[in-house]
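Page 37, continued from 36.
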């Protein structure tokens, strides 16, 4: 018996089996508490560090002038150097999330290179309007919308990179930003969790020329996110030059600037998600 063996190991005193049993129970409780504490902190750390990278635009193009803003100039062919720089600065992150436009003009060669560069990092990939769906799903992520649970947080990735079925060029963002009914239904189900939630989507829900104004087509989505009660953050990219955040109806919205932006190459964001 374990108790008899323990009695032999203890000093020669008048020790009862009850005393030894009590000692074993106390020791077991202590060990169990230590293990429980260790496991809890492994799976539910006090905070999660989230790294954000967007609009890499990986490709052969050396210089990309994009849009009416004279500052909106990118260096797509520098993506390897810029990505390595950002990842080195995010090496302590629990999750590193791209916010779309991983590619510049598509191309499996560049998608594979991105995957290779990031293979030792905890990556989560978001699809952007410059990412070709078949290449994205084949190389970067098998799904374009999905979620990842980490500790007390659920990270939901949405795909709003496609055009509306009736899109015309003079629509908001040339008609891009479409989320179909199947994805919206999936989102509402995915929000039914006790976890806190952060949402990523490539195209912002705010208007490019007036960040104080919600896009009309996203009013219903904004209501769903706010009503859920557990959505704390929404992260987007797409605008390249915009570095902005604001709390709207209890949800903190971020727009992140491009990794490949002239005079800001290699830039990233680091956000601490608190579990308490």
């Amino acid at each position: 018996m374990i108790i008899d063996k323990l009695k032999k190991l203890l000093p020669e005193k008048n020790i009862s089996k009850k005393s030894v049993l009590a000692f074993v129970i106390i020791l077991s409780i202590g060990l169990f508490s230590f293990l429980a504490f260790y496991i809890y902190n492994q799976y539910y750390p006090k905070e999660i560090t989230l790294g954000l990278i967007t609009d890499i635009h990986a490709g052969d193009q050396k210089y990309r002038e994009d849009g009416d803003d004279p500052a909106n100039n990118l260096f797509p062919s520098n993506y390897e150097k810029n990505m390595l720089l950002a990842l080195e600065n995010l090496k302590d992150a629990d999750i590193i999330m791209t916010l779309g436009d991983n590619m510049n003009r598509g191309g499996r060669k560049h998608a594979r290179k991105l995957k290779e560069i990031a293979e030792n990092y905890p990556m989560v990939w978001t699809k952007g309007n410059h990412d070709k769906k078949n290449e994205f799903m084949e190389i970067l992520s098998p799904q374009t919308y999905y979620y990842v649970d980490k500790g007390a947080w659920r990270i939901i990735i949405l795909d709003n990179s496609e055009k509306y079925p009736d899109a015309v060029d003079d629509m908001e963002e040339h008609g891009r930003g479409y989320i179909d009914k199947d994805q919206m239904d999936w989102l509402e189900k995915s929000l039914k969790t006790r976890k806190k939630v952060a949402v990523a989507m490539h195209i912002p829900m705010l208007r490019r020329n007036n960040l104080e104004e919600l896009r009309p087509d996203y009013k219903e989505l904004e209501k769903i996110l706010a009503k859920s009660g557990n959505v704390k953050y929404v992260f987007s990219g797409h605008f390249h030059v915009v570095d902005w955040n604001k709390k709207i109806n209890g949800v903190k919205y971020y727009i992140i600037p491009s990794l490949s932006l002239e005079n800001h190459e290699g830039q990233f964001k680091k956000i601490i998600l608190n579990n308490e």
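The mean pLDDT is 90. Flag for discussion at group meeting. The domain at 47-274 is CATH 3.60.21.10 (Purple Acid Phosphatase; chain A, domain 2).
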